[in-house]
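Tokens help. One example:
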Amino acid sequence: MKLKDKVAIVTGAASGMGKAIAIRYAKEGAKVVLSDINEQALNEVVRIITSDGGTAFGVLANVGKIEDIEHLVDTTVDTYKTVDILVNNAGIMDNFLPVGELTDEIWDRVININTSGPMRLIRKCLPIFLEKQQGIIINNASIGGLHGSRAGAAYTASKHALIGLTKNIGFQYSGLGIRCNAIAPGGVNTNIGTTMNNPDKFGMERAMSGASLNPRFAEADEIAGVALFLASDDASFVNGAVITADGGWTAY
């Protein structure tokens, strides 16, 4: 088992890539703390893990709220005494809004959940990692954080910022036993589309103009395999990196 007795926090774990990562980690021996805003779906993932012999529990948490972040990490430490792995997976879309149509409300909400939430979770876990000179951070970004128009302006900016944060942390704490990496998935079969409402026609047309070049959509478990690699000792020399997992879409 690659993660035997490691304690992992996975956000956005009630569905999609977060669910797949949590299940994969548990199968590899990790004690997994799952967080999400969907309590019913969260409890179902916990049931799946524990019925298969894994160790897990769920914490209802909105990563856009600092009090929820504090509660999530504190509950994890109260239960398992430490945190070894932090997976910032929770995220939302932005209705493909171009900057001309972007409201302050949507900008603030997307940045808060996609960028500020991961930063605050990392900040909260960092003293734990520093004390034992060991910790792994994995930020689930997007190819939208590598290119200019795979989504709207807010989502694009939030994922570029998350990748910049990843590289900054990876370098600055590299001599202190902490690794911080990002995954940049392409098209993945998840329910993130449910975070959109009435997508902007112009913005969507521009963002989807290269969609015909996408070789295929991934299943969430394929991204979970990348997350397992980054969390394991197999990736001991991988730090401050962005692993693109898009089936070759952006290689064109």
Observations:
- The longest helix spans residues 104-132.
